User: Which sequence fits this backbone?
């Protein structure tokens, strides 16, 4: 998933950035409220991780602006403010979840996955399509019950395609889902990952619609 | 003797007793003097009336049985010195020695004697002095009696009045004793005697000040707990990243991050402790050489400055600059101000430290850096604890200037944040008061 991390503390920001990156998410990190708003205006994110005590523009202000524009982007608040009143204020301002610092990286990753599932309208933590199943919690894929070893990037691309089978995603859309700003992207990086996925799963699982993009067929291929 | 009641009783009753005795004594003296006049006059009248009598040798003495208690003794001599008459047989009174009044001492006490010569005879009338003394003592006793009756009653009244007067004190004590440590609202007692009013007012004042101090302390603890979450959150994440590292290079990176996180948390805790110590500090003031202290602080921060290629040094004239202060606190002040300057000045910048004592003004400490400075609007707030400027990457505790301000307050020094030379950078100026 493509995440926007808004956190002014350099150490926490770096750690969350790294930790969620390892989970296969593309994380953009900004350090103040104004930068968060401009990032929200220019990129499409799946989830925002929002600190409340931010310079320039307070986290609740960013959240209020987002909801006022009618954006339903899932928002997870990460904050040191632990009073019940603060949690209530945060959730009432439109946050979907609230995590108090210090928090566990695994718990944060689980909550990020849960919010991602809810956004895709699923309750099942496993993403299934015919014989193929993905477990976002463990970045594990299985085909007909047999585990398939995927790199984090390969997993992220497959995950994006499996969320809406039959719906093609362009190379640019896939890049956006898989890479954050700062990462250098080779011009054919997505093709390389698609090639690897086809090799591991079978060419029938990922099809190319010339000039449009890649998709997983709506009717899962027979094993 | 610390009991007010007993003290008052002793003083009051002692005073009353003394007054009674004095009154008795004065009465005694006055009565004695007046009775002298009256009785002398009486003696003289008796002698005059006797002088008109004719005395023969056959006059009998007074009847011992009936008249023995009559305390006038009368004797009469003729001109040849032959005693014609004596009213009392016992006659240890001396023969007439002189005419007029005389006081003579005899074995059975003093006598007042009046002698006169009339028609060839000498008449002498004598009266014991004891009569007069008895009279005076009787009068004195009559004056004393009401006092002696009144003193115990006075004591009882005093006892009761003091009890009543001190009752509000017990009320104040009760009000203070019933108080929970958390409740520091003023006592606000309804009826307080005037004498207790200053005490109650002082207590209320103390309670208000204590309440304020407690609020500050509570806010400080809450802030501190809140602020500690950030470095702790970072540490937890850094440890988890270390656990997750998949190869040696990642592991080394994670260890480096973790160390930096630990350093930050340690620094934060140290700064908190320093601030807490300075808040309650009352260290000894002694003569200190601020120039030497500053030079020492510069030397300690030199490695940090060198690592950032910052030109850090002392400016101005060298030499002792003495002031009265707490050396340990001043060291903390210098380390914070110079440390801040080095930390926030970018690579290749310059930091000057100047200590001077201008004539007529107090000692001045200046730390000038070529860093980004602090916007005018933020200068007030940066001294608040945990306040950090936006967009600073240095990741300090947010306590350095709060500590510096506290140390300055203790030294009655003024801490000002000013523009650096030419409007660039920041000049931190600490103006110590001129020594009286």
Assistant:
């Amino acid at each position: 998933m493509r995440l926007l991390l808004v956190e002014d503390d350099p150490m926490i920001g770096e750690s969350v950035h790294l930790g969620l990156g390892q989970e296969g998410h593309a994380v953009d990190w900004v350090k103040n409220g104004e930068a968060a708003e401009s990032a929200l205006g220019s990129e499409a994110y799946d989830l925002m991780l929002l600190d409340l005590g931010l310079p320039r523009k307070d986290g609740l202000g960013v959240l209020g602006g987002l909801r006022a524009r009618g954006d339903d982007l899932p928002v997870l608040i990460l904050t040191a403010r632990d009073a019940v009143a603060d949690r209530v204020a945060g959730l009432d301002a439109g946050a979907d979840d609230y995590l108090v610092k210090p928090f566990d990286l695994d718990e944060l990753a689980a909550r990020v996955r849960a919010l991602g599932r809810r956004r895709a309208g699923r309750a099942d933590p496993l993403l299934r399509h015919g014989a193929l199943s993905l477990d976002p919690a463990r970045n594990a894929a299985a085909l007909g019950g047999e585990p398939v070893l995927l790199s984090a990037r390969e997993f992220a691309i497959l995950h994006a395609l499996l969320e809406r089978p039959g719906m093609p995603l362009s190379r640019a859309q896939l890049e956006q889902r898989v890479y954050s700003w700062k990462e250098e992207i080779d011009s054919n990086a997505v093709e390389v990952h698609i090639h690897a996925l086809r090799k591991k799963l079978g060419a029938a699982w990922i099809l190319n619609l010339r000039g449009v993009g890649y998709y997983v067929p709506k009717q899962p291929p027979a094993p | 003797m610390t009991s007010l009641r007993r003290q008052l009783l002793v003083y009051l009753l002692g005073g009353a007793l003394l007054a009674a005795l004095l009154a008795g004594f004065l009465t005694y003296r006055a009565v004695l003097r007046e009775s002298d006049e009256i009785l002398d006059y009486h003696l003289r009248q008796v002698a005059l009336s006797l002088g008109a009598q004719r005395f023969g040798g056959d006059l009998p003495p007074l009847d011992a049985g009936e008249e023995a208690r009559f305390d006038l003794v009368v004797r009469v001599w003729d001109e040849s010195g032959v005693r014609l008459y004596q009213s009392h047989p016992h006659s240890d009174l001396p023969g007439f020695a002189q005419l007029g009044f005389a006081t003579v001492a005899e074995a059975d006490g003093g006598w007042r004697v009046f002698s006169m010569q009339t028609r060839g005879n000498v008449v002498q009338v004598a009266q014991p002095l004891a009569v007069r003394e008895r009279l005076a003592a009787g009068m004195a006793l009559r004056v004393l009696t009401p006092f002696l009756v009144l003193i115990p009653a006075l004591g009882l009244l005093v006892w009761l009045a003091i009890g009543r007067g001190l009752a509000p004190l017990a009320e104040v004590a009760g009000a203070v004793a019933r108080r929970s440590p958390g409740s520091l609202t003023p006592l606000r007692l309804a009826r307080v005697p005037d004498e207790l009013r200053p005490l109650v007012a002082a207590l209320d004042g103390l309670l208000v000040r204590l309440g304020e101090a407690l609020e500050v302390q509570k806010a400080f603890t809450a802030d501190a707990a809140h602020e500690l979450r950030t470095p702790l959150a970072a540490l937890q994440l850094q440890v988890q990243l270390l656990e997750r590292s998949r190869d040696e290079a990642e592991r080394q990176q994670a260890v480096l991050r973790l160390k930096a996180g630990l350093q930050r948390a340690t620094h934060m805790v140290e700064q908190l402790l320093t601030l807490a110590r300075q808040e309650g500090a009352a260290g000894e003031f002694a003569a200190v050489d601020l120039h030497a202290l500053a030079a020492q602080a510069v030397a300690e921060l030199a490695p940090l400055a060198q690592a950032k290629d910052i030109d850090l040094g002392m400016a101005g004239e060298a030499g002792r600059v003495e002031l009265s202060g707490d050396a340990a606190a001043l060291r903390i002040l210098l380390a914070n101000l110079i440390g801040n300057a080095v930390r926030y000045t970018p690579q290749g910048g310059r930091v000057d430290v100047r200590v001077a004592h201008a004539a007529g003004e107090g000692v001045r400490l200046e730390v000038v850096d070529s860093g980004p400075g602090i916007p005018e609007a933020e200068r007030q707030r940066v001294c608040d604890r945990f306040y950090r400027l936006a967009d600073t990457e240095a990741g300090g505790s947010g306590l350095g200037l709060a500590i510096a301000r506290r140390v300055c307050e203790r030294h009655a020094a003024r801490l000002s944040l000013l523009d650096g030379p030419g409007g660039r950078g920041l000049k931190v100026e600490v103006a110590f008061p001129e020594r009286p």
